[in-house]
Each structure stands twice: as structure tokens, then as C-alpha cells.
Amino acid sequence: MEGFDALRVGIYGGTFAPIHNGHVASAKAFMEQMKLDYLFIIPTGTPPHKQMDHSDDPLFRLKMCELAFADTDGVIISDCEIKRGGKSYTYDTLVEFSRPDTRLFFMCGTDMVLTFDKWYRFEDIIKLCYPVYVRRENDPIMTKRIVDKITEYYNKYGVMFRRIVTEPTEISSTQIRKRVAEGKDISGLVPPAVAEFIKQNGLYLAEDEK
Fold first, then answer.
1. Per-residue pLDDT tens for 70-99?
2. Is 71 exposed, middle or buried (0-12, 13-18, 19+ CB in 10 A)?
3. Strand pairing partners for 76?
């Protein structure tokens, strides 16, 4: 349609177990640099490539995402993958959010960039969205691997990955769960409301402390 500007919508999925300050910083940089109208944060129901702890509750992860972005305009927390049930595939989520009046931007991390062509219906995914990535580490060796892989994607499929430029925040959800289990402080690693939620609900404690 002539003179029509499509909505710019971001998709940022993950297990978020728990969501931490690195996720939040990446999401805000994603919104700003891709000039998004809306950003959907989508906690995974059952991730296809990751084994979740037996005590994992997707609804707790959903609630922590809501707390982390409670004061951030334009961010919407979606339970679509949790409601869908079964394994959460990116292709299915992108189809669900696709609209004629919308441009979808899908953000992934370093590890995802390197394995993107192994994902379920990869070639359909790159037709549905503009892929972008964010670095989670300072590693020159990894930089070369990423550049080589992105060049391969462009040469083979004509798809260009855009980079979100932000200072890497070397925090991992695994590290946070470990600190909680060891009784260590996680303030400064997760938003305050998330830290309080983890404490109130006894999440990630060692078995003998539950």
C-alpha cells in the first residue's frame, strides 16, 4: 500500500530461567536500534534443544518476565508458546505473529547464530523475519566464527543478519541458579522484583533447602 509504514515488531524468545539483567539490556537495545514499535518477550514452553530442570514451571518464568519489564513501554510478555504446548519451535511462533502489515525482527544470541541453519524449517524462518543477533561475550575467536557463519548465510541464502551493538553482559541463567542454590547474593544480576520473586517462591534452591 503506497505511503503505508508497516509495524516493526520484535520477537525475543528464550527459556528465561530466570530472566536477568543481560536479557533486559539486550531487549532494550533491540527496541532502540531496530526502531521497534513493539517487542514481544516470549518464554519458551518446552525448548527443543535444551533440557529443563524437572522442577521448572513455565508460569514462574512468565511471571518473572512480566516483573522485569513492568515499567518498559512497548514490551509485551506473551504466553503463546506456553499455551501452545509441546516443543516450542521458532517457525510456529513467527507464523503466529506474521501479518501483512508487520515486519518481524527476530533476535537470537551468539550460540543460536552458529546453529541457525540446523533449526526446524530454517529456510522458512528466514522468509518470515529479519534475523538480528546480540553478542553475549567478548571473545575474538568467536567473532571470527560468527563473521564466517553470517557470510555463509548471506552467500547461500541471501539473508543478512543485523547486529545489535551493545556491551556484552556476561551473565548466564545457569550461573544465577547456581548462586541461588549456594545461598549467594544475586542482586545486581537480575531486576530487584525478579530477585524478590525468586526468594518468595523458593526457586532454584538446593534440594535439601526446599
1. 999 999 999 999 999 888 899 999 999 999
2. exposed
3. 40
Q: Are strands 75-77 and 162-164 parallel, antiparallel or unpaired?
A: unpaired
- The interaxial angle of helices 58-68 and 192-200, nearest 10 deg, is 150
Pull the grid cell for residue 39.
Answer: 517487542
In this predicted structure, the answer to whether residue 210 has a pLDDT above a threshold of 60 is: no
φ, ψ of residue 23 to 5 degrees: the values are -60, -45
- What does the block give as the cell for 144? 571470527
Q: What is the pLDDT of residues 113-123, one digit of tens each?
A: 999 999 999 99
Listed by start position, the domains of the chain span: 7-170
Q: CA quadruple 139, 116, 96, 104: dihedral positive or negative?
A: positive
Q: Kindly state the cell numbers that stand for 196.
A: 524478590
Q: C-alpha grid cell for residue 168?
A: 556484552
**What's the whole-model pTM score?**
0.92
In CATH, the number for domain 7-170 is 3.40.50.620
Cβ–Cβ < 8 Å for 63, 197 = yes
As a whole number of angstroms, the distance between CA 23 and CA 191 comes to 10
